[in-house]
Amino acid sequence: MTPRPNNQAYNANENTLALESFLPYRLARAAEMVSRQFAANYRQRYGLSRPEWRTLATIGQYEQVTATEICAHSSMHKTKVSRAIRALEQRNWINREPDTQDRRIEHISLTREGSRHYRDLVRLARDYEVQLLQTLGSSGAGKLEDGLTAVESRLSGW
């Protein structure tokens, strides 16, 4: 049996939809609010844009990546990634090394300074995540994690 949405998005008039109650919209809106609020933290401290933060986080997580890998991991368009890479390079936070086999490919890694700032941003991110999880409580956090995992698993096959 398919569960029927238990919200106000569906009403007696089948030709209308209460967007603010529609689950995909609520997920997108919640993600945007969380992202915007966290962005205020790293923007205030470092002046980073969202693409710069996501690019830095991907490089820091994997230590050495290509721009194509950053695009795939972060779900950002190559233009945004390219601009973020240039901005991080201007800050001296990353190194770019050409591939020995294919000169079109560059391997990107953090500089010593970039690593120092990345570690600080990791602490900032973890602190922010703890605050969010405390808002949900342990039961709510577990349910959210399970629900997101189910949605991501289901949609990754589409």
Structural write-up:
The chain is mainly alpha-helical. The protein has one domain: Winged helix-like DNA-binding domain superfamily/Winged helix DNA-binding domain (Arc Repressor Mutant, subunit A, Orthogonal Bundle), CATH 1.10.10. It has 5 helices and 3 strands, in the order ααβααββα. Strands 1-3-2 form a 3-stranded antiparallel β-sheet. Strand 2 and strand 3 form a beta hairpin. The model has no long low-confidence stretch (mean pLDDT 91).
Quickly list its features.
158 residues, mainly alpha, Arc Repressor Mutant, subunit A, 65% helix, Metal_resp_HTH_trans_reg, WH_DNA-bd_sf, DNA-binding transcription factor activity, HTH_MarR-typ
Could you tell me how far the N terminus lies from the C terminus, measured between alpha carbons in angstroms? 21 Å
CATH class: Mainly Alpha
Structural class: mainly alpha
Which homologous superfamily in CATH is the superfamily?
A: Winged helix-like DNA-binding domain superfamily/Winged helix DNA-binding domain
The dominant shape is globular
Mean pLDDT comes to: 91
CATH architecture label: Orthogonal Bundle
The proportion of residues in beta strands is 5-15%
Radius of gyration (CA) equals 20 Å
Under CATH, the topology can be stated as: Arc Repressor Mutant, subunit A
Order of helices and strands: HHEHHEEH
Question: Looking across the biggest beta sheet, what order are the strands in?
Answer: 1-3-2
Largest sheet: 3 strands, antiparallel
User: What is the tally of beta strands?
Assistant: 3
Helical stretch tally: 5
Share of helix, binned: 55-70%
Count of structural domains: 1
* Unreliable stretches covering 5 or more consecutive residues: none
